[in-house]
Amino acid sequence: MEATKTKQETITIIVTRQNDPSSAPYEETFHVPYRENMNVISALMEIRRNPVNAEGKETTPIYWDMNCLEEVCGACSMVINGTPRQSCAALIDKLEQPIRLEPMATFPIIRDLAVDRSQMFDSLKKVKAWVPIDGTYDLGPGPRMPEKKRQWAYELSKCMTCGVCLEACPNVNDKSDFIGPAPISQVRLFNSHPTGALNKGERLEALMGEGGIGSCGNSQNCVQVCPKGIPLTTSIAEMNRATNIQSFKNFFGSDTNY
Amino acid sequence: MNENREFFYRRLHSLLGVLPIGIFLIQHLVINHFAAYGSGSFNTAAGFMHNLPFRFVLEWVVIYIPILYHAILGVYIVLTGKNNTRRYGYFRNLMFLLQRITGIVTLIFIAWHVYQTRVITIFTQETIDFDFMEAILTQPFFFWFYLIGVISTTFHFANGLWSFLVTWGITVSPRSQRIATYATLLVFLGVTYLGVRSLLAFGMGV
């Protein structure tokens, strides 16, 4: 099976295209000459070099987003054979043909395979996914973090805002304002940082806000599809606990609800 | 309260599903199960519940208002989701879909059940006893309607219990969530047994 796949001379790619954010999507098929060790991006580059579709008609080059080409930036996410993932890490030899490429339609589509993920960055701002240390004077070094905890936190910090978890989440869609799993896990990351913990109340408040953690429906698709293997559902459950405690503190009148 | 109301509404929705609705469901099915011991047993048990002091207040506070709230927000939750089990056929995603389907089925079932046993009976002045339920459940259509309705309700309760444990931050680790899946499966089997056993007593006379 593997041998016949690598011997074939062309690969077939069916791309769901769209000319602009408001126009209707359509499918276009391409035949691309096979080379060894190709990934989806190099196949797309091949089409860009020679933008002729399977019917032999000249067409516009496919538009997509990419940056690091080593699965750490998250920019090149798209739905490949039904699975949202990074196209740079999708090797042609390991894909069933014809290869179907679609944009992650949960997000607004800019053109062809490129989507606008700015809602994710807005969510990170909303939940204050950073450690605020700016000020008018040097605050000095923060507390040390145990090495074991650092290793654990590193796993959460691998999130590249790629959008795959939002694409797979049934509760992230145009009828809901749910921020999705990624920013919830980031709250867990920054709240467990010794200096970040100084602002943990603020982040939890944000998670209890509009489109926050309350909209999670526990379908747990996120943890299945995350390309970085981040324990997203553990993060969500942990943040469920933390926001509940926070809301009890708020309501029952403790004054230590920061 | 500083936080956005949505968080509070969703948490209340989760809480009410178990407390009091889930507790009431178990109590209801345990009382129904007396039907398996004969009509006299059932009539005594149901009569005891019927003659509880402040029954009217109990019914509204423990049953009707919580169910109404749970149902209305539940329909909203169903409408704001976009099911994708065809692309993501994972177990939990299937449970997510089933929770929504059984939610709607249960809502239809309960609406009819309340109408049939609580609303019409106000006008007909019938007493709700073993014979009353027997008359309904010996009709094949209603037997199947109740069977589907009861199983849908018990599934919704048991699977909802699993989500409740996650939503309230009780089962956080993947291991505890996995064990909770088996535990709630046992709850489902147990509660379904109670419900189906009493349906058989009413409908089949066994």
Automatic annotation (TrEMBL), chain B:
- Give the keywords, sorted: Heme, Iron, Membrane, Metal-binding, Transmembrane, Transmembrane helix
The UniProt GO MF terms for this protein read: metal ion binding
- The UniProt transmembrane annotation reads 12-37, 57-79, 91-115, 141-167, 179-200
Q: Which Gene3D superfamilies match?
A: Fumarate reductase/succinate dehydrogenase, transmembrane subunit
An example GO CC term for this entry is: membrane
The family database entries (SUPFAM superfamilies) matched by this protein are listed as: Fumarate reductase respiratory complex transmembrane subunits
Question: Cellular location of this protein?
Answer: Membrane
Annotated CDD domains: SQR_TypeB_1_TM
User: Which Pfam families does UniProt cross-reference here?
Assistant: Sdh_cyt (PF01127)
For the ligand (heme), the binding residues are: H28, H70, H113, H156
What NCBIfam families does the entry give?
A: sdhC_b558_fam
* Protein name from the UniProt record: Succinate dehydrogenase
* Species lineage: Bacteria, Bacillati, Bacillota, Bacilli, Bacillales
